[in-house]
Predict the structure.
Amino acid sequence: MISMKLLASMIQMKYRVDDWVIYKPFADSESELLREMSSRVLILDLLKNDFFYDYKIYIEETQKIKKVREHQLFSIPDSTY
């Protein structure tokens, strides 16, 4: 049987420390208004040993630090210029 520590070290993270991404706190909401809420955030840490949260982020507009799950984060679209 695989130990929890080994399993946590095998998990592949989508984002890396120092990546800028979009945070949508209510990405799964049925309300369109809540789903559209978003903020630009910086990935501070990968929480591989946390069984609930995946990342620690810095929210640029509120200047707060928060733990979040990966399904709430989205890549920033590439510039079109």
